[in-house]
């Protein structure tokens, strides 16, 4: 922690909260979890689990307070099914969960990794007991996608990260049926030169609706002499026209600092895919993959974040 900066997110002092050695079956690493609150108020994390083949599938961890005493389901929740979905022959990764009240379903946007590259696939579940895969909805090369929790206008809306002429930026697309996505528009671009988010950016967690706009947490990557550094920034999108970015932080607000974030399978990575907003409508638990190896949580206040953003 650097005392000269205001820290918006504070790490839980018993991080990492989840690691491979806690799993009831063999996994090599656990990271980049999607997150949601269940109807009973418990926290559910859908964790990416990489095995010793190097391929990923998704498994569930649950906790009453979202911080400790995690119980891990005895078998994976979602596995790659290459016979049915060839796009996921090299695994499924980085889920983002949005609860859609209108459908009474949790929608899971995840990365299918296949021979033509990463693509965006969707699955639905009512209760995390079983799920239904809808298949690939955005062709390679595309990833880092999440759906907004309600229709805007009369359409479903998704943020995602296609690679477009070597540019990895955040785009928006619209759909009437969740399967066909169109009217793609650029929302947030990587910055240039020495900036912390100059190499590539991608959506982190699904958007949160606030009075001041849709709050998004995104990851930005800088290329350095010793490799990439994955850090986190914030942006606000217009409530009615979410293709318009009304605010974007200049500074990153969270970065690899602790040993478990700096060292692991991929060094210097913090990679959030999920958060929960607690019943007080203020406390945020931000869940992130640390060095592609374990899972950390950091706590913030929505009110403080919006106050801080207002003054940027
Ligand atoms: C990104 C994704 C993430 C991963 C990160 C750092 O491109 O593949 O799953 O955490 O790289 O390796």
From TrEMBL:
It holds the Pfam family Glyco_hydro_130. GO terms for molecular function: glycosyltransferase activity. Keywords: Glycosyltransferase, Transferase. The keyword Magnesium does not apply. Transmembrane segments: none annotated. Belongs to the glycosyl hydrolase 130 family. This is Glycosidase. It comes from Leptospira ellinghausenii. The lineage of its organism: Bacteria, Pseudomonadati, Spirochaetota, Spirochaetia, Leptospirales.
């Amino acid at each position: 922690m650097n005392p000269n900066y205001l820290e918006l997110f504070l790490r839980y002092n018993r991080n990492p909260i989840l690691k491979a050695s806690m799993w009831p079956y063999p996994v090599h690493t656990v990271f980049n979890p999607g997150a949601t609150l269940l109807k009973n108020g418990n926290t559910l994390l859908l964790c990416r689990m990489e095995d010793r083949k190097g391929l990923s599938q998704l498994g569930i961890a649950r906790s009453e307070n979202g911080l400790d005493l995690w119980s891990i389901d005895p078998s994976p929740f979602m596995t790659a099914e290459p016979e049915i979905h060839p796009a996921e022959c090299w695994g499924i990764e980085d889920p983002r969960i949005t609860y859609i009240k209108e459908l009474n379903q949790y929608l899971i946007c995840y990365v299918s990794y296949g021979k033509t590259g990463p693509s965006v696939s969707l699955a639905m579940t009512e209760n995390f007991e079983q799920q239904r895969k809808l298949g690939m909805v955005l062709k390679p090369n595309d990833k880092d996608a999440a759906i907004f929790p309600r229709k805007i206008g009369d359409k479903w809306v998704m943020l995602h990260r296609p690679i477009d002429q070597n540019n990895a930026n955040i785009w928006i697309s619209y759909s009437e049926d969740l399967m066909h996505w169109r009217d793609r528009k650029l929302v947030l671009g990587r910055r240039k030169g020495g900036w912390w988010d100059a190499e590539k950016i991608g959506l982190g967690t699904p958007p949160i609706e606030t009075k001041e706009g849709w709050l998004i947490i995104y990851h930005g990557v800088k290329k350095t002499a010793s490799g990439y550094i994955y850090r986190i920034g914030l942006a606000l999108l217009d409530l009615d026209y979410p293709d318009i970015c009304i605010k974007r932080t200049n500074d990153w607000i969270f970065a690899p600092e602790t040993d478990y974030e700096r060292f692991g399978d991929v060094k210097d990575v913090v990679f959030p895919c999920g958060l929960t907003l607690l019943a007080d409508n203020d406390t945020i638990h931000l869940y992130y993959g640390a060095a592609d190896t374990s899972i950390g949580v950091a706590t913030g206040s929505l009110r403080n974040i919006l106050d801080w953003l207002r003054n940027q």
